[in-house]
Specification:
This is Tight adherence protein C. Pfam families: T2SSF (PF00482). This protein is mainly α and 320 residues long. The chain has a domain of 117 residues: Receptor-associated Protein (Up-down Bundle), CATH 1.20.81. Helix content is 81%, strand content 0%. It has 13 helices and no strands. About 2% of the residues have low confidence.
Length: 320
Amino acid sequence: MDYLLSLLDSVVGNPELARLLFVSAVGLSAVLALVTVGLLVVGLQSPLQRRLNVLKRGHASVGRAAPSSLQLMLEQVGERFAGNQDWHNSPTRTLLVHAGYRQPSAAQAYWAARLLLILVLVGIAVLVLPFLKGASFLQASLLLVGAAGVGWIVPAVYVDKRKQARMRSLRAAFPDALDLLVVCVESGLALPQSIERVAEELSVSHGELAEELALVNAEIRAGISSTEALRHLADRTGLEDINGLVSLLAQSIRFGTSVADTLRIYAEEFRDRRTQAAEEQAAKLGTKLIFPLIFCLWPSFFLVVIGPVIVGVLKAFGRL
């Protein structure tokens, strides 16, 4: 406490004014904290408000557990922080869907997590400041700003990493699903039944893609056309391969051509693209090995091969 007062006094230059500003800041922070906690507690403790929040966010689906108090609190904080924006068409919503968060309140929880993490890290930095003896006001400010920046960036980095990992998993599972889909369609099954069978077969080895295909089948059963359901699949996954498949199937269904032939042709083209991608990665291998060879292997090779020769030359000339 005294350390913070001394820092504020060094900036203001007036001890009384610094004390007044410090007391005002502490009082305002306490009032805001009490008001925030009070609003959250009232909203969470009221059964009517809890039920309305559950119904509003679409949690009352069959077979899904009720949200926890922490989840409702994050949603409320995120909703107050983010406002009434259209999250359905926002880039944040797209990022979260690609990362696997399809809940209606995912955007609110995401913003709430970023805000709360900032407050937690800034609070920890404030507690650490008295132990940093000799730190100037600029250094303390940089520490607080750095803590706030870390709290703002870490959730975004985590969601982006999760998105990349999920897209890699879906991309690795897509060839197997495509081959199984070709087999099912050529055996006489319709496209919805083929998608359902492929989802059942992939439920063990590739659970994420199986879940997406099961959702496609559920949309088709609900009355959505196969083309629209597959387009929704491409939007949820963000994979270009699925976008190409959706375009080909849409043309096949529109012009009445054979779906089996379309899938077989796309499977062959996909194998060719996968082979070309592997050849491209192999061609880049030689260039990527230049830096490890120069900075890791070449110095050791120089010491082993050229080192004894240099020592012999120095001995011959009487330097050693």
